[in-house]
Prior knowledge:
Strand order of the largest sheet: 1-2-3-4-5-6-7-8-9-10-11
Radius of gyration: 21 Å
Largest sheet: 11 strands, parallel
Mean pLDDT: 78
Shape: elongated
Structural class: alpha/beta
Amino acid sequence: AVVSTQSTGIHDCTIDETSLHLVLSNLPNLTSLSIKRNHDLDENPFIGEYTIIESLKQNKLKRLTVIDTRTYILHFSLNEVLETFQTSLEYLDIGYELVEAYNLFDVSLMHLKELCLDMDEFYGPEDGLDYDELEECLKLMPNLESLKLHLDDDCSLVFSALVRCCPKLKKLHISAHRNTDFGQLASLKCLDLIIVDADLLQMLRNPVKMCFVESLKSVTDLAAICLKGVSITDEEVVALINGLPKLRAFYLIDCPLISSKLCKNYKGIVSLYRT
Protein backbone atom coordinates (compact mmCIF):
# COMPACT_ATOMS: atom_id res chain seq x y z
CA ALA A 1 0.00 0.00 0.00
CA VAL A 2 1.17 3.51 -0.80
CA VAL A 3 1.59 5.65 2.33
CA SER A 4 2.07 9.37 2.79
CA THR A 5 4.95 9.39 5.29
CA GLN A 6 7.72 11.93 4.62
CA SER A 7 10.42 10.35 6.79
CA THR A 8 11.55 6.77 7.32
CA GLY A 9 14.44 4.98 8.99
CA ILE A 10 15.65 1.47 8.16
CA HIS A 11 17.99 0.51 10.99
CA ASP A 12 19.57 -2.72 12.28
CA CYS A 13 18.08 -4.85 9.51
CA THR A 14 19.07 -7.60 7.11
CA ILE A 15 16.88 -6.20 4.35
CA ASP A 16 17.97 -6.96 0.79
CA GLU A 17 17.79 -4.56 -2.14
CA THR A 18 14.56 -5.99 -3.57
CA SER A 19 12.79 -5.57 -0.24
CA LEU A 20 14.26 -2.09 0.13
CA HIS A 21 12.90 -1.19 -3.29
CA LEU A 22 9.42 -2.42 -2.37
CA VAL A 23 9.46 -0.32 0.80
CA LEU A 24 10.76 2.87 -0.77
CA SER A 25 8.69 2.69 -3.96
CA ASN A 26 5.55 2.84 -1.79
CA LEU A 27 6.66 6.09 -0.15
CA PRO A 28 6.09 8.69 -2.90
CA ASN A 29 6.18 11.65 -0.50
CA LEU A 30 9.44 10.67 1.16
CA THR A 31 11.78 13.59 1.86
CA SER A 32 14.01 12.00 4.54
CA LEU A 33 15.66 8.57 4.39
CA SER A 34 17.99 7.00 6.96
CA ILE A 35 19.62 3.59 6.44
CA LYS A 36 21.87 2.42 9.28
CA ARG A 37 23.53 -0.88 10.11
CA ASN A 38 21.90 -2.82 7.29
CA HIS A 39 23.68 -6.08 6.53
CA ASP A 40 22.54 -8.95 4.39
CA LEU A 41 23.20 -12.36 5.89
CA ASP A 42 24.65 -13.57 2.60
CA GLU A 43 28.34 -12.68 2.29
CA ASN A 44 28.02 -12.71 -1.51
CA PRO A 45 24.58 -11.22 -2.15
CA PHE A 46 22.97 -11.32 -5.57
CA ILE A 47 22.85 -7.92 -7.23
CA GLY A 48 19.35 -7.49 -8.63
CA GLU A 49 17.79 -4.96 -10.96
CA TYR A 50 17.04 -2.27 -8.38
CA THR A 51 19.03 0.63 -7.11
CA ILE A 52 18.09 3.33 -4.64
CA ILE A 53 17.65 5.63 -7.63
CA GLU A 54 14.94 3.39 -9.07
CA SER A 55 13.21 3.34 -5.70
CA LEU A 56 13.41 7.05 -5.00
CA LYS A 57 13.09 8.70 -8.41
CA GLN A 58 9.56 9.81 -7.57
CA ASN A 59 10.70 11.72 -4.47
CA LYS A 60 12.31 15.06 -3.72
CA LEU A 61 14.73 13.84 -1.10
CA LYS A 62 16.00 16.50 1.30
CA ARG A 63 17.78 14.36 3.92
CA LEU A 64 19.85 11.22 3.32
CA THR A 65 21.73 9.14 5.90
CA VAL A 66 23.62 5.95 4.99
CA ILE A 67 25.85 4.56 7.75
CA ASP A 68 27.38 1.12 8.34
CA THR A 69 25.53 -0.40 5.40
CA ARG A 70 26.81 -2.81 2.79
CA THR A 71 27.58 -0.66 -0.21
CA TYR A 72 26.17 -3.21 -2.64
CA ILE A 73 22.71 -2.05 -1.64
CA LEU A 74 23.51 1.25 -3.34
CA HIS A 75 25.08 -0.39 -6.38
CA PHE A 76 28.01 1.95 -5.92
CA SER A 77 25.79 4.75 -7.23
CA LEU A 78 26.19 7.47 -4.61
CA ASN A 79 27.07 9.99 -7.30
CA GLU A 80 23.95 9.02 -9.23
CA VAL A 81 21.83 9.48 -6.11
CA LEU A 82 23.36 12.90 -5.46
CA GLU A 83 22.94 13.97 -9.07
CA THR A 84 19.26 13.07 -8.93
CA PHE A 85 18.65 15.05 -5.76
CA GLN A 86 21.21 17.83 -6.11
CA THR A 87 18.48 20.48 -6.35
CA SER A 88 16.68 19.27 -3.22
CA LEU A 89 19.23 17.63 -0.90
CA GLU A 90 19.91 19.72 2.20
CA TYR A 91 21.36 17.14 4.62
CA LEU A 92 23.84 14.33 3.92
CA ASP A 93 25.29 11.92 6.49
CA ILE A 94 27.51 9.13 5.15
CA GLY A 95 29.75 6.62 6.87
CA TYR A 96 33.40 5.88 6.26
CA GLU A 97 32.64 2.79 4.17
CA LEU A 98 30.95 4.95 1.53
CA VAL A 99 33.74 7.51 1.57
CA GLU A 100 36.25 4.76 0.89
CA ALA A 101 34.15 3.12 -1.81
CA TYR A 102 33.23 6.25 -3.71
CA ASN A 103 36.24 8.44 -3.10
CA LEU A 104 33.57 10.84 -1.85
CA PHE A 105 31.74 12.56 -4.75
CA ASP A 106 32.01 15.12 -7.52
CA VAL A 107 28.42 16.40 -7.71
CA SER A 108 27.62 20.07 -7.16
CA LEU A 109 25.35 20.37 -4.11
CA MET A 110 24.36 24.02 -4.06
CA HIS A 111 21.47 23.47 -1.65
CA LEU A 112 23.34 21.28 0.84
CA LYS A 113 23.41 22.93 4.26
CA GLU A 114 24.48 20.06 6.56
CA LEU A 115 27.18 17.46 5.96
CA CYS A 116 28.30 14.65 8.30
CA LEU A 117 31.34 12.53 7.44
CA ASP A 118 32.13 9.67 9.79
CA MET A 119 35.66 8.51 9.07
CA ASP A 120 38.44 6.88 11.00
CA GLU A 121 41.14 8.61 9.03
CA PHE A 122 41.94 10.22 5.72
CA TYR A 123 43.73 8.00 3.30
CA GLY A 124 46.45 8.79 0.84
CA PRO A 125 45.57 9.26 -2.83
CA GLU A 126 46.36 5.62 -3.59
CA ASP A 127 43.90 4.36 -0.94
CA GLY A 128 40.97 6.72 -1.22
CA LEU A 129 40.12 10.17 0.07
CA ASP A 130 42.84 12.65 0.98
CA TYR A 131 42.73 16.28 2.11
CA ASP A 132 42.99 17.71 -1.39
CA GLU A 133 40.00 15.64 -2.47
CA LEU A 134 38.03 16.79 0.56
CA GLU A 135 38.70 20.41 -0.41
CA GLU A 136 37.48 19.72 -3.94
CA CYS A 137 34.28 18.30 -2.47
CA LEU A 138 33.80 21.30 -0.18
CA LYS A 139 34.00 23.58 -3.20
CA LEU A 140 30.88 21.86 -4.49
CA MET A 141 28.82 22.93 -1.46
CA PRO A 142 29.38 26.71 -1.03
CA ASN A 143 26.20 27.15 1.04
CA LEU A 144 27.19 24.62 3.70
CA GLU A 145 26.21 25.86 7.16
CA SER A 146 26.97 22.82 9.34
CA LEU A 147 29.78 20.25 9.16
CA LYS A 148 30.32 17.25 11.42
CA LEU A 149 33.67 15.62 10.77
CA HIS A 150 34.82 12.57 12.71
CA LEU A 151 38.27 11.29 11.94
CA ASP A 152 41.31 9.99 13.74
CA ASP A 153 43.53 12.81 12.57
CA ASP A 154 44.19 16.50 13.18
CA CYS A 155 41.15 18.41 11.91
CA SER A 156 43.11 21.64 11.67
CA LEU A 157 44.48 20.27 8.40
CA VAL A 158 41.08 20.96 6.84
CA PHE A 159 40.40 24.33 8.50
CA SER A 160 41.99 26.40 5.77
CA ALA A 161 39.90 24.56 3.18
CA LEU A 162 36.75 25.25 5.20
CA VAL A 163 37.49 28.96 5.33
CA ARG A 164 38.12 29.12 1.59
CA CYS A 165 35.22 26.94 0.47
CA CYS A 166 32.47 27.35 3.09
CA PRO A 167 32.22 31.02 4.12
CA LYS A 168 28.65 30.51 5.39
CA LEU A 169 29.63 27.83 7.92
CA LYS A 170 27.90 28.42 11.26
CA LYS A 171 28.35 25.11 13.07
CA LEU A 172 31.43 22.88 13.19
CA HIS A 173 31.44 19.55 15.05
CA ILE A 174 34.91 17.98 15.12
CA SER A 175 37.37 15.80 16.92
CA ALA A 176 40.46 17.67 18.09
CA HIS A 177 44.06 16.87 18.93
CA ARG A 178 46.76 18.53 20.99
CA ASN A 179 48.14 20.31 17.97
CA THR A 180 44.82 21.55 16.60
CA ASP A 181 45.18 25.16 15.46
CA PHE A 182 41.79 26.83 15.77
CA GLY A 183 43.21 30.19 14.75
CA GLN A 184 42.67 29.28 11.10
CA LEU A 185 38.90 29.59 11.74
CA ALA A 186 39.17 33.22 12.86
CA SER A 187 37.56 34.61 9.70
CA LEU A 188 34.33 32.62 10.16
CA LYS A 189 31.56 34.68 11.75
CA CYS A 190 29.29 33.63 14.64
CA LEU A 191 30.57 30.06 14.65
CA ASP A 192 29.27 27.35 16.98
CA LEU A 193 32.14 24.97 17.74
CA ILE A 194 31.61 21.47 19.13
CA ILE A 195 34.73 19.54 20.14
CA VAL A 196 34.53 15.88 21.08
CA ASP A 197 37.64 13.79 21.57
CA ALA A 198 39.07 11.79 24.43
CA ASP A 199 42.54 12.61 23.12
CA LEU A 200 42.22 16.01 24.78
CA LEU A 201 42.14 14.28 28.15
CA GLN A 202 45.84 13.66 27.67
CA MET A 203 46.41 17.42 27.87
CA LEU A 204 45.93 17.40 31.62
CA ARG A 205 49.65 17.31 32.37
CA ASN A 206 50.81 18.64 29.04
CA PRO A 207 52.02 22.24 28.68
CA VAL A 208 50.51 22.40 25.21
CA LYS A 209 47.10 22.47 26.91
CA MET A 210 47.33 26.24 27.32
CA CYS A 211 48.10 26.49 23.60
CA PHE A 212 44.75 24.80 22.99
CA VAL A 213 42.96 27.42 25.10
CA GLU A 214 44.87 30.32 23.50
CA SER A 215 44.14 28.88 20.08
CA LEU A 216 40.41 28.87 20.82
CA LYS A 217 40.59 32.46 22.05
CA SER A 218 41.98 33.50 18.68
CA VAL A 219 38.63 32.67 17.05
CA THR A 220 37.15 35.92 18.32
CA ASP A 221 33.73 35.52 16.66
CA LEU A 222 32.91 32.23 18.36
CA ALA A 223 29.24 32.28 19.37
CA ALA A 224 29.05 28.97 21.23
CA ILE A 225 31.45 26.27 22.43
CA CYS A 226 30.61 22.71 23.39
CA LEU A 227 33.34 20.52 24.86
CA LYS A 228 32.85 16.84 25.62
CA GLY A 229 35.34 14.74 27.55
CA VAL A 230 37.93 17.51 27.76
CA SER A 231 40.09 18.13 30.82
CA ILE A 232 39.63 21.86 30.93
CA THR A 233 39.57 23.77 34.25
CA ASP A 234 37.28 26.46 35.65
CA GLU A 235 40.03 29.03 35.22
CA GLU A 236 40.52 28.17 31.55
CA VAL A 237 36.78 28.36 30.86
CA VAL A 238 36.70 31.80 32.49
CA ALA A 239 39.67 32.86 30.36
CA LEU A 240 37.79 31.79 27.24
CA ILE A 241 34.59 33.58 28.30
CA ASN A 242 36.52 36.79 28.98
CA GLY A 243 38.49 36.46 25.75
CA LEU A 244 35.54 35.79 23.44
CA PRO A 245 33.23 38.83 23.45
CA LYS A 246 30.54 37.26 21.25
CA LEU A 247 30.29 33.99 23.18
CA ARG A 248 26.66 33.39 24.21
CA ALA A 249 26.84 29.76 25.39
CA PHE A 250 29.45 27.37 26.78
CA TYR A 251 28.38 23.72 27.11
CA LEU A 252 30.56 21.31 29.08
CA ILE A 253 29.76 17.59 28.85
CA ASP A 254 31.64 15.06 30.98
CA CYS A 255 34.48 17.50 31.65
CA PRO A 256 35.86 16.10 34.95
CA LEU A 257 37.66 19.20 36.25
CA ILE A 258 34.71 21.60 36.06
CA SER A 259 32.96 22.57 39.30
CA SER A 260 29.29 23.38 39.84
CA LYS A 261 30.42 26.74 41.23
CA LEU A 262 31.43 27.80 37.73
CA CYS A 263 27.87 27.30 36.48
CA LYS A 264 26.50 29.42 39.32
CA ASN A 265 28.98 32.24 38.68
CA TYR A 266 28.28 32.23 34.94
CA LYS A 267 24.61 31.33 34.91
CA GLY A 268 23.10 31.84 31.50
CA ILE A 269 26.38 31.14 29.72
CA VAL A 270 27.87 27.94 31.17
CA SER A 271 25.90 24.68 31.20
CA LEU A 272 27.32 21.52 32.78
CA TYR A 273 26.16 18.02 31.88
CA ARG A 274 27.13 14.55 33.14
CA THR A 275 26.25 11.42 31.18
